[in-house]
Design goal:
Length: 450
Amino acid sequence: MKKAGLLFEDPLPGAAVAPSGGGLARGLLLVLLIFAGTRLVTWTGTYCGAALLFRIEHKLDPPFEKHLRRLLEQAAEHRGAEYESYVDLLTDLAPLCRFDGVHYRSIIEGGYRYKAPPPGATDRKVLEQNIAFFPLFPLLCRPPAHVLTTHQAMVLVTHLCALAAAISLYLWIRRRIDEPTALLTVALTLCWPSAVYYSYGYAEGLTLLGMVGALWLIDRGAFFPAALVSGLATATRPTALAIAAVLVLAFWLNAAGTRRQRLLKLIPLGLLGAAGLLLFAGYLTWRFGSPLVYIDNFKAGWVPEKERSDWLAYLTFTPIWEQFRYFRNTALFAPVGLVNLANPFMWNVPLNLFLLFVSLAGLGRVPRRFRPLLLLGPLIFLHSYLASGGAKFGVEPIGRYMAVSIPAFVVLAVWCLREWHAVARHLFLTFLVLLQAAWALRFGLQEWSG
């Protein structure tokens, strides 16, 4: 019998999972359908946004479809400024590879480049250099880019990684808890608004795969294999360092042995878990003379010092609370203000705080072994905020980074299944998918969305 207050228990050693809703093949098919459906939402929204942007730039009257034949005729002859814009905005999966995707493409095609910007430089192309992006994703994209275009390779890799992550997550939670929880956890992960980035030419899909793999191994107590996977994850993006911290904490709290024995293993385990970041720092030192060029580039181009908060605002999390202004503007300028409802920045902070609430509230309702995993979301949040210095440009993307808070989604799934009405669950998932579509539309319009 389930212990009072616990949402789920540790499985018995060697215990088989009850079917509870269908077999493995059916579950995997449902995972595939959830993945395909949410990716269709992202692709459709993104391409609608890109087509709308094309119409705006060329002042084309609707509908867009009546202009396609002319554009295709121009494409056959490779002529016209309108055709060049069409190629740039709509062909070769370009809508899925904007913003950070441009930098990843530059790494895949030309490697890392860095040159200290001259004093007073304002050109973003000079200030925002590609050493801000970690190496594992472009390394994986490079082989298929010899056969496909660079954009196609980037999108293929991120989709394959995200699908592998979804399947791994399903298999883990199916064995850990039960079938319905596993399916709902996958649905929450892929329906989350910022899950749009699992379809873009970004490292997010690869980061998700690394996080799921490391969490699964940590939960099983396979700490050194988990450290290897964690090391790979930290080569995808800086916020993945949180998984190394979770690994060390889980080992300290749950591993067998005396304190001395655990302490002797803790340092090599932590170093291995952060190996990706450490190796990238070593590469920057070898190539550019110092690992600090990463921080210099970050401050000069990505989050300049002049855009950071003063100490009082920073310590009181004022840049976070300021994001609630979208709710005020929605009411103040209604009905025009209703456009804010489709703005990702309106929902970023509420959803982030909700994940933090689920993570922290769940600590007392999960087995002891699972508790360190729930700190992943809070650690990502704190890491992102501290690194941003409270700058708007650094605060806004936190919602994207928090999307890999898998343990919070596990707890949320159990909570929804056991204590929410079915109608509430369906409405919540619908709300998330609608936000995902709005986020994709904004991305396609080339409007910064974190």
